[in-house]
Amino acid sequence: MGEKVTLQGWLYNKRSSGKLHFLEVRDGSGICQCVVFKGEVSPELFARADHLTQETSLRVTGTVREHGKLKGTFEVGVAELEVLAEPAREYPISPKEHGTDFLMDNRHLWLRSKRQWAILRVRAEIVAAVRDYFDSNGFTLVDAPIFTPNACEGTSNLFSTDYHGDPAYLTQSGQLYMEAAAAALGKAYCFGPTFRAEKSKTRRHLAEFWMVEPEVAFLDLDGDMDLAEDFLVSVVSRVLDKRRKELEILERDTKPLERVQKPFPRIRYHEAIEILRKAGHDAKVGDDFGGDEETVISQGFDRPVMVHRYPIDLKAFYFKRDPKDLSLALNVDVLAPEGYGEVIGGGQREEDLSKLEQSIDVHKLPREAFEWYLDLRRYGSFPHAGFGLGIERTVAWICGLPHVRETIPFPRMLNRLHP
Ligand code: 4AD
Ligand code: MG
Fold first, then answer.
1. Which UniProt keywords apply (predicted)?
2. Residue with CA nearest ligand 1 atom 30
3. Domain 4-85, CATH number (from 3.40.250.10, 2.60.120.330, 2.40.50.140, 3.40.140.10)
4. Ligand 1 pocket, 205 CB below 6 A?
C-alpha cells in the first residue's frame, strides 16, 4: 500500500462514471482494477483512457491503495498510462456468450479469459503436484519415446506415421518402456503426451492427451491400488491448498474434493455390474463400461472408487490373470466421483514369458516388435505393476468441467487440429 508500481498488461474490461474510468488490467498473474480520476491526471490522459478498447496492451503506473468499499481488495490510482498497441480490429471475444465452436476456433485468444486462465493455473498445479509426488517418493523420471513400433493399447486407435520408410506409431502409452525402466530403477515414471485416434466424439476423449505412468518392481495389484489412492489424495489436497482462488473463479464446489481421503472403496468388476443392474441398466458380465456406466457406478460413492478384476478379454495384452480365477485380469480402473469417469487405468503385469507370448498372439500383435519387451521376462523376470493417470480427465474432475476440451491449452479431437 502506498507504493508506486508499474503494471504491464492488457485491458480486460472498462467502466466509466463521470469523473472516473475503471480499467481492469490483466498482467498474467491476475486482474487489477486501475482507477483513472479526472482530478489526478492530465485532460489528454483522461480522454485517452475513455477510448481504450478490450485487449489493448498497456503500461500503467500509479499508487497502490485499498479499494474504497471492499476491505482487503487493492487497486492502483493511475498517474501515467502508456498504450503499447491498440487492437487492429475489434477483439472477437466479448463478455457476451459465444458458441463453443467459435470459442474453440479462437482458442489462442480464448485462453486470455478469466475462466481459461483459472483452468490453466489449476492444470499447472496438478502437473507440479504429480511430479513432486513421484520425485519425493523414490521414483526416477524416465522419458518414454513418442515414436514407437509397439501398439500398447490395441490396434484400433493408432496414429501411424512413416518413419524413414518403416511404419511407426505415435505412442498410446509409455508403459512398456516403464517396465524396462522399473527393472533398472525399481520405481520409475514417465510423463508426456500420448496419442489415440479415437473415432468417437465424447466429452472424455482427446486424440492427444498427457499421461503420467508410474511402474514399480515387486508390486502387486493391492500395492498398486494403495499407490493410486495415496497419489490421488496428495494431488487433490495440493490443489485445494494452492489453487482455492482459481477454483472459486470456476465456481467449483470444493466439498466433494475435500472428501477425497483414504481409504477409497475397492469393488470388483462383478459388483460394479450388480450396481448397474440395480440402477436399471441392462448390464451383463463381459460388458465394458462407457462414460454413462462409469457415472452410474461412481454415484454410489462419495470419493473415487477403484473397480478391479475385469474380464481378461476386455483388457490389453499385458495384464496378469488372477490366479484365483483365470478369466479375470489383475487390473484396476479408478473412477472419479460426481460422474467424471475413469481417471486411472492400470494393474499388475504378466511376468511369465510363455503366457505373455501367448497373449501377444491372441491379440494378433506382431511378435517381432515385442521381442525387446519379452526380454524383460527372459532376464530376471519380476512381479510388477503400475498405472496411467490422464491429466485432462483429472483437470476436468478437479475443475468441475463437463468436457475435456477446456482442460488442455490446444485440444486435438476428432474434428479439431486448429489452432
Ligand atoms: O486406461 P488406459 O488406456 O491405460 C493405459 O494406457 C495404460 N498403459 C497405463 C499404464 O498402466 N501405464 O489410459 C490411462 C488413462 C485413463 O484412465 C484416462 O484417464 C486417460 O489415460 N485416457 C484418456 N484421456 C483423454 N483422452 C483419451 N482418449 C484417453 N484415453 C485414456
Ligand atoms: Mg482404461
1. Aminoacyl-tRNA synthetase, ATP-binding, Cytoplasm, Ligase, Nucleotide-binding, Protein biosynthesis
2. 205
3. 2.40.50.140
4. yes
- CATH 2.40.50.140 in the chain is located at 4-85
pLDDT band (50, 70, 90) for residue 107: very high
Ligand 1 centroid – CA 88 distance (Å): 43
Question: What is the pLDDT confidence band of residue 198, given thresholds at 50, 70 and 90?
Answer: confident
Q: Which residue's CA lies nearest to atom 20 of ligand 1?
A: 390
Q: How far apart are CA 98 and CA 40, in angstroms?
A: 38
- Name the fold adopted by 108-406: BirA Bifunctional Protein; domain 2 (3.30.930)
Strands (E), 126-264: 140-141, 147-148, 160-163, 166-170, 187-195, 208-217
Ligand nearest to the CA of 344: 1
- ipTM surpassing 0.95: yes
User: Does the model's pTM come out above 0.90?
Assistant: yes
